[in-house]
Design goal:
mainly alpha
Length: about 100
């Protein structure tokens, strides 16, 4: 379907749908970063740093990458929160708040 033929409402609904999916996939990508960092996979694939890897593959900022890596340390010994993080059902900022308690 040609997007120029969509009504404003249909276009908006599509934007919402794609936006929600984008957030979910970025959260799932973020959950992979601690393992990528641990294995130095970013170096093996020719990236200078984990920050460059995340920026080029998922558009993540260096600050977001640092938060995710710090969160992974907080989640050690907290399997229920780790599962939420890895599944992408909750954003890492919400999980971080709960993990700190």
């Amino acid at each position: 379907m040609n997007i120029t033929n969509l009504s404003d409402e249909d276009l908006y609904v599509r934007c919402q749908e794609f936006g929600m999916n984008a957030r979910l996939w970025v959260r799932k990508f973020a959950a992979l970063l601690p393992e990528v960092y641990k294995r130095h996979l970013y170096k093996k694939k020719g990236f200078i740093s984990i920050h460059e890897f995340a920026a080029k593959l998922a558009g993540m900022s260096a600050e977001a990458v640092n938060r995710v890596l710090n969160l992974s340390e907080l989640l050690e010994g907290k399997p229920a929160l780790s599962e939420l993080f890895e599944s992408g059902t909750q954003g890492w900022s919400k999980i971080r708040v709960v993990a700190a308690i």
